[in-house]
Amino acid sequence: MIEFMQTDSFLIMLFVLVVLLILGYIANIAKLSKMQKNYKEFITKLGNGKDITEDLRKYVKRVEKVENTNKEIINYCENLDKNMESCVQKIGIVRYSAFRDTGSDLSFALALLDEKNNGVVLNGIYSREMSNIYAKPVENGESTYTLSEEEKQAINKAISK
Predict the structure, then answer these.
(1) At what angle do helices 52-84 and 8-43 cross, to 10 degrees?
(2) How far, in Å, CA of 140 to CA of 143, rounded?
(3) What's residue 102's pLDDT?
C-alpha cells in the first residue's frame, strides 16, 4: 500500500479528487449565493422595497393578542355557563278555576326551576272577594310543603321541558 502511495498514479488520482472537491465547493457556494439572493428577494416586499420581517413581527403580536382575547372569552363563557345553572330555565304554568262560583280559569300555579330542578312554585288563587299568592320552595323537583295537584302539574310541566 505504501508503495502505491509513492507512485505517480496515486498522486494523479489524489489531484483529480482535490480538483473535484474544489469544483463541488465552488458549485455549493454558487447555489448558496443564488439561494441568498432569492431569499432577499422574497423577504423584500414587491413595490416599496420594505423588509417583510417587521410585518411578520407585528402579525405574530396580533395573533398572540387574539389568542389571549380568545382565552378571556372562553373563561367568560365558562363562568356564564356556571351561572346559568342557577338561573330560571324551566317554566311550567297551569291555569285552573279554584272556586265553582268564579268563571274562567283565573287561578294559576307557576313553577320556576333552574337546571337542577330547584326553584319555586307560585300558586295564585283568585276569588271574587280577594286574590292570594302562595310561594313554596322546590328542591330537586320536590317541596317540603304539601303541594296541590295544580302545583305538581306545573312542576312536572317545567321539568319535562
Answers:
(1) 60
(2) 8
(3) 63
C-alpha cell at 148: 296541590
DSSP-assigned letter for residue 87: S
Phi, psi (rounded to 5 degrees) for 75: -60, -40
SS3 80: helix
Say which residue the cell 410585518 belongs to. Answer: 55
Tell me the per-residue pLDDT of 101-133, one tens digit each, with 9 for 90 and over: 666 788 999 999 999 999 999 999 988 788 899
Total count of residues recorded for the chain: 161
pLDDT tens, 47-64? 566 777 777 888 999 999
User: Which residue, among 25, 112, 53, has the nearest Cα to 123 in the 3D structure?
Assistant: 112
- Which residue, among 26, 52, 150, 159, has the nearest Cα to 96 in the 3D structure? 150
How many Cβ atoms are within 10 Å of 63's Cβ, its own excluded? 10
* Residue of 24, 22, 20, 23 whose CA lies nearest to 12: 20
The CA distances from residue 46 to 43, 55, 97, in Å, are 9, 13, 82
Contact 115, 89 (CB under 8 A): yes
- Parallel, antiparallel, or unpaired: how do β-strands 107-113 and 119-126 relate? antiparallel
